[in-house]
Amino acid sequence: MNNLHNKTDVVLIGGGIMSATLGMLLKEVQPDWEISVFERLGKCAEESSNAWNNAGTGHSALCELNYTKEQADGSIDITKAIHINEQFQVSKQFWAHLVKTGQLPEPKKFIRSVPHMSFVTGTDNVRFLKARVEALKDNNLFKNMTISDEPDTLKEWIPLMMEGRQNLTTPIAATRDHSGTDVNFGALTGQLLTRIEERGAGVYYEHEVLDLKQNKDKTWTIKIRDIKEDKVFTVVSKFVFIGAGGASLPLLQKTGIPESKHVGGFPVSGLFLVCKNPDVVEKHHAKVYGKAKVGAPPMSVPHLDTRYIDGERTLLFGPFAGFSPKFLKQGSYFDLIKSVKPNNLLTMLAAGAKEIPLTKYLVQQLMLSNDERMDDLREFVPNAKNEDWRVVVAGQRVQVIKDTDKGKGTLQFGTEVIASQDGTLAALLGASPGASTAVPVMLDVLQRTFGHTFSEWEPKIKEMVPSFGTKLSDDAALYETVNQEVVKYLQLNPETK
């Protein structure tokens, strides 16, 4: 840990993937800047970025059906799928650059090739899946996707899920794309923070940010408590990034900037079923996403995932939604109440009135017994045995509520960057696809807050992310070039059958 100065260029609040990514980008484009990272817990990535607290899917819309909406005329809107995939391509290019330059020496500790699949049952859903593939197949980002409705083929692809499906009377189908990945964002965060600390950044654990106040010269005074020493001190910084997961909203509200008004948050917790039985785990090597049940929110899409956590291969199924008023897994039961302010009260009330179906869904999920969760799992794995699976509580997610052109109190399902008009502060709110978009989102933060110097950084950024400013979906040749680099340096094996 470097010596803490009372004045610095950049303060990053939160020791997760977002702060780590922004810190690494800044060390690349402006290595002389002084950076301080403050994390409330005893080590990095213990909340939203922790491997047990997020899905770990490198979200690229290869399997997530909620990113391709069916329109009234039966056509499939692939706009969001392309956007999500483009974002993840940017993240992979940056990671590959860091591996290439020796700054992430062990890529297998945070990323591995795992096929991404979609699985559906029923005539209408099979028709939808085929229409989805038809809509995506001509885009070079999705050209490797294959589909089958043949039981024998599916037995090869997903043997665990096909056990117990004899004498099928209901149509089934699945898609598969070998370019999918499993990402341990906790491990990645640790590697990034270690590297920026080696490059001169100060990374301070058990340091809680209590308050932020802007000074007349546009700098920020940050009030911090050293939890271990029980001492309070202040640091003055030219720029502040709030990347504290569920704690970002309360901290943003403390800044008092106009952009923090009329913004609220709704916390949603989750549960996963986990299997570590090697006899079961070995029968499944994929991330398989289904369709959300009618009336369920986007974050509830069921999936059966192969995960690599701490070097161990395991299976996760879920998520099952829950509710807690906490904004962090290790937060306070008063977080939600404290976040309601005079300036966002109407926004919050409007959201509550509009989100009655979500409330009903959460109540239903909270009432599920373990046997009922196992019944949901058996829709994916018919022969699943209770003794092979246990419940794990996942992380807290705080969905953003804000006033938009869609009306007052609109619940947002995604990530949201809020930046001050003077460019001295930015905060990240929201959830999925979250960590997968860390690099493009942090590049957006830099562009929005350092507009006066961003153009000077662009040559270096294009060196790190060759596709920056270009859509790979529109440039097949560039995609092939950068993808070869990504596969090589991240040690992926996307052609593995």
From TrEMBL:
<protein>
    <recommendedName>
        <fullName>Probable malate:quinone oxidoreductase</fullName>
        <ecNumber>1.1.5.4</ecNumber>
    </recommendedName>
</protein>
<keyword id="KW-0285">Flavoprotein</keyword>
<dbReference type="GO" id="GO:0047545">
    <property type="term" value="F:(S)-2-hydroxyglutarate dehydrogenase activity"/>
</dbReference>
<comment type="pathway">
    <text>Carbohydrate metabolism; tricarboxylic acid cycle; oxaloacetate from (S)-malate (quinone route): step 1/1.</text>
</comment>
<dbReference type="Pfam" id="PF06039">
    <property type="entry name" value="Mqo"/>
</dbReference>
<dbReference type="InterPro" id="IPR036188">
    <property type="entry name" value="FAD/NAD-bd_sf"/>
</dbReference>
<comment type="similarity">
    <text>Belongs to the MQO family.</text>
</comment>
<dbReference type="GO" id="GO:0006099">
    <property type="term" value="P:tricarboxylic acid cycle"/>
</dbReference>
<keyword id="KW-0274">FAD</keyword>
<dbReference type="GO" id="GO:0008924">
    <property type="term" value="F:L-malate dehydrogenase (quinone) activity"/>
</dbReference>
<keyword id="KW-0560">Oxidoreductase</keyword>
<dbReference type="InterPro" id="IPR006231">
    <property type="entry name" value="MQO"/>
</dbReference>
<keyword id="KW-0816">Tricarboxylic acid cycle</keyword>
